[in-house]
Recover the amino acids of this structure.
């Protein structure tokens, strides 16, 4: 046997199969997207790119997108990092409830937040009128830049919280005690020890928040009032009511990918400078704060979380209001629910069928890829690793458009099927699940698997009988988040769905876009209830009560 | 059924980095064979090549007459005990032990019988239904051993199995391991960097350094007649001194510091010539001489360990040395005191000047040529 050649075994087959899937469902669509942007009726042209860069209108949308993504990222970090710190360092009243609310906050589609904020703080919103009656004049408007940043920050800081909490769980208590011994405590310790220790995660969270804010088009659409952003063009050019230009949309999508790729590389460069690994032997022990400090901590944690949760509470409240036509009237009634009663079963069924299949695929593929990446390093598997990370930097709507372009023609027509929605969900969600699975796998000694092999297991059996059960708990806590993101996915779904494959989230979206506020609120409430139920089920079965990212 | 293991000209490379250049060893059927060496010497690498977890870049490994180079690790019928035990944390003690038998699709009754038998043998039957996280290190080690033995492997491989245990438990467990091995009579390859542990359990030891075997022999051989400087200083403690050999009137005389001379009767025929040599003197091979004869030295420090007292001295020539004396009832020699010491000439070892070979008779080395 030659020394360089690895043995050909079952894992090689799995590698090739996964690579094939990525080639077909990710690389091929992206390739078609690129072709679409540079070919017009079969002839090569750069006119779509020229159009983008020559018209200052499009340049402005780019500036807008950057301005609000950066602002939203900064605010989300400012709110989220202290929240994670307090949550993990001190005893907070009603932790379990707080945890569920935090997950609910970051998991609802952004446009629900935007929609609710318009109801609350719009020109004629409840809070706007309340403030007006108190101070005598209208408070500053929520519309435009300020509104988008507010909504996105409140929407995204829970993500920061969850990621940073994960990092804090790996901080060894002795590090904090040691710093206290050396005279660094309190606020000083937060800035000098805790922040630097969490820096890699904070940078990762910043990237994630930035990408979400950058790719979001629901919020600017609802609350922007003329503040045009970059993703809105893609959507309008592809699905707008008038003057759509698919080639131009493709070109803008390509530009979007280039920009996000650059951002990703910058982040990677920055985080490489902070790279280190921690593993806590003794996790941080939560302390009970006393006196004023305790009051402030409780106020802060519950305050920001409830503020972020307020839109959803309001939406749920709205779902029970009486309606007349499309307008809410005084009193309570179940009319909104009655209106949608006929369509709910299909939406719920789709949500669960598509969601469960997608989740199963995501977990299976992610765990296999993580295994290949960690335990079977090779050029082939490095390629898979890179390919699987591509969707991380591609806005959801671009994934959706690329899939449509690739699969609305022969030989493989998939548009309009539930299958293509599952594919989109897998592509979108797998990168996150891979990262968490890789982290889990790195903690498991390879000897456990070797022990199984020496006891007569085949390689695949050893993986399923020894390694996978050890990963199970960690994978499970990642899976619940995947589940919640899957059932609330909008970006790709809105491009790929049709009458038969509509889900709850998509139903909310169609109702909002039709101006049917009552039914939209009713759908949102049903979705929230299902999300809570699935989280409660998870918490019952999971050994550790924490949901990790 | 036990097997003999033959390793012929094995080569291990990681990329361009050769870890084991060319290694051969014969391990006898049923013996307790230890690979001993400092960390990074390739002992674990060799063990994993035998187990099948490392690829083999050259040479052959045989179990009896069967070449196993390309045999799947699962089909080699080996029992392996890992440094971190590698107990399955999601299975109970019983399920851990039964894992290999279930894998062989044995019938339930046999599995239960065999599992019980080996849990009893390892004294873990009372924890049968516990999860591993609730076991101590020593108990986990017993589970690992029971799990490896219950499948009745041809070969038992152990990779530093005691290094995660505390000192007292380590001594206790090595007795357990040795007893079990003798009872079961299985060919065992054991890896350790602890020479005392190796001496305590092994029938034979292979001392390794830099991917090569230095010497193979019984603990007694290695200690008393090491093949070279590395073995003499790795096994036990020793003092290395410069010396000169001269042949006068048919007698071979070893000249040490301070004009101290002693006759050697066991130098090999072909080495009896005037030459510079290295002399390896173990602490217990020095004798403190009260008549002013021998090497002159000053006592720097002393350590009283009950049975023995260790003296750390510096010779007049500036060589630091350690001496062990049986503790006497009267006082310990004080610091700064000048003493003279002679050597037990039948016990010391004399090596070539470069330390590559022992020039005395009676050096046994089972290393295959």
């Amino acid at each position: 046997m030659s020394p360089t050649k690895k043995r050909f075994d079952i894992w090689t087959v799995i590698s090739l199969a996964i690579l094939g899937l990525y080639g077909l469902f990710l690389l091929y669509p992206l390739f078609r997207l690129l072709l679409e942007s540079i070919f017009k009726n079969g002839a090569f042209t750069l006119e779509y790119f020229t159009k983008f860069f020559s018209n200052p209108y499009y340049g402005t949308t780019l500036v807008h997108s950057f301005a609000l993504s950066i602002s939203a990222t900064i605010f989300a970090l400012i709110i989220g990092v202290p929240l994670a710190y307090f949550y993990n360092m001190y005893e907070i009243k009603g932790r379990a409830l707080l945890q569920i609310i935090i997950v609910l906050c970051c998991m609802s589609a952004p446009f629900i937040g935007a929609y609710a904020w318009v109801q609350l703080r719009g020109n004629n919103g409840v809070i706007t009128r309340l403030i007006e009656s108190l101070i005598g004049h209208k408070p500053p408007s929520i519309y435009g830049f300020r509104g988008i940043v507010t909504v996105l920050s409140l929407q995204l800081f829970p993500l920061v919280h969850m990621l940073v909490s994960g990092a804090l769980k790996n901080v060894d208590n002795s590090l904090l005690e040691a710093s206290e011994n050396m005279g660094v405590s309190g606020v000083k310790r937060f800035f000098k020890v805790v922040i630097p220790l969490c820096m890699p995660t904070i940078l990762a969270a910043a990237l994630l928040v930035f990408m979400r804010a950058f790719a979001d088009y629901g919020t600017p659409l609802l609350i922007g009032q003329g503040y045009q952003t970059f993703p809105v063009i893609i959507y309008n050019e592809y699905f707008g009511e008038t003057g759509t230009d698919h080639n131009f949309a493709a070109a803008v999508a390509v530009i979007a990918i280039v920009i996000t790729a650059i951002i990703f590389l910058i982040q990677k460069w920055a985080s490489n400078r902070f790279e280190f690994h921690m593993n806590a032997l003794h996790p941080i022990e939560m302390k009970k704060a006393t006196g004023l400090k305790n009051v402030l901590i409780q106020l802060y944690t519950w305050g920001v979380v409830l503020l972020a949760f307020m839109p959803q509470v309001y939406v749920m409240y709205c779902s029970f209001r009486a309606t007349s036509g499309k307008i809410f009237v005084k009193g309570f009634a179940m009319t909104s629910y009655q209106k949608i009663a006929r369509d709910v079963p299909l939406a719920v069924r789709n949500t669960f069928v598509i969601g469960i299949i997608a989740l199963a695929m995501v977990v299976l593929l992610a765990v296999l890829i993580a295994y290949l990446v960690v335990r079977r390093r090779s050029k082939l598997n490095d390629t898979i690793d890179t390919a699987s990370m591509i969707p991380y930097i591609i806005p959801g709507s671009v994934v959706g458009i690329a899939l449509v372009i690739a699969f609305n023609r022969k030989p493989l027509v998939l548009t309009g099927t539930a299958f293509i929605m599952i594919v989109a969900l897998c592509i979108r969600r797998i990168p996150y699940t891979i990262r968490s699975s890789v982290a889990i796998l790195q903690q498991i000694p390879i000897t456990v698997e070797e022990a199984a092999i020496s006891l007569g297991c085949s390689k695949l059996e050893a993986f399923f009988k020894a390694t996978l059960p050890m990963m199970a708990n960690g994978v499970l806590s990642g899976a619940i988040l995947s589940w919640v993101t899957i059932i609330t996915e909008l970006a790709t779904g809105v491009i790929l769905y049709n009458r038969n494959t509509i889900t709850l989230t998509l139903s909310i979206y169609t109702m909002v876009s039709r101006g049917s506020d009552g039914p939209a609120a009713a759908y949102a409430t049903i979705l929230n209830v299902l999300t809570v139920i699935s989280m409660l089920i998870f918490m019952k079965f999971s050994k550790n009560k924490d949901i990790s990212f | 059924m036990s097997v003999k293991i033959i390793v012929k000209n094995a080569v291990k490379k990681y990329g361009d980095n050769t870890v084991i250049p060319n290694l051969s060893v014969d391990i006898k059927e049923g013996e307790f064979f230890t690979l001993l060496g400092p960390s990074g010497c390739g002992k674990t690498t060799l063990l994993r090549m035998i187990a099948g977890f490392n690829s083999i870049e050259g040479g052959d490994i045989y179990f009896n007459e069967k070449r196993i180079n390309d045999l799947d690790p699962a089909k080699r019928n080996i029992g392996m005990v890992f440094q971190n035990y590698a107990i399955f944390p999601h299975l109970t003690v019983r399920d851990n032990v039964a894992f290999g038998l279930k894998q062989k699709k044995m019938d339930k009754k046999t599995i239960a019988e065999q599992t019980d038998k080996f849990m009893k043998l390892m004294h873990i039957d009372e924890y049968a239904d516990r999860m591993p996280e609730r076991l101590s290190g020593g108990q986990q080690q017993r589970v690992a051993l029971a799990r490896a033995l219950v499948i009745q492997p041809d070969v038992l491989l152990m990779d530093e199995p005691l290094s995660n245990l505390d000192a007292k438990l380590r001594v206790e467990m090595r007795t357990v391991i040795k007893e079990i091995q003798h009872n079961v009579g299985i060919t065992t390859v054991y890896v350790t960097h602890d020479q005392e542990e190796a001496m305590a359990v092994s029938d034979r030891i292979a001392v390794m350094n830099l991917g090569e075997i230095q010497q193979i022999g019984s603990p007694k051989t290695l200690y008393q007649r090491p093949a070279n400087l590395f073995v003499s200083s790795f096994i036990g403690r020793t003092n290395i001194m410069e010396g000169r050999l001269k042949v006068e009137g048919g007698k071979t005389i070893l000249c040490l510091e301070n004009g101290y001379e002693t006759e050697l009767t066991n130098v090999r025929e072909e080495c009896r010539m005037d030459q510079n040599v290295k002399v390896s003197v173990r602490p217990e091979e020095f004798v403190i001489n009260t008549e002013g004869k021998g090497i002159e030295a000053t006592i720097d420090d002393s350590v009283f360990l009950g049975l023995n007292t260790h003296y750390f001295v510096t010779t007049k020539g500036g060589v630091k040395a350690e001496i062990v004396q049986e503790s006497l009832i009267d006082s310990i020699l004080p610091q700064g005191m000048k003493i003279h010491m002679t050597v037990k000439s039948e016990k010391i070892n004399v090596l070539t000047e470069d330390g590559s070979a022992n020039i005395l008779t009676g050096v046994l080395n089972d290393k295959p040529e």
Observations:
- The radius of gyration of chain A is 24 Å.
- Confidence is low (pLDDT under 50) at residues 1-5 of chain A.
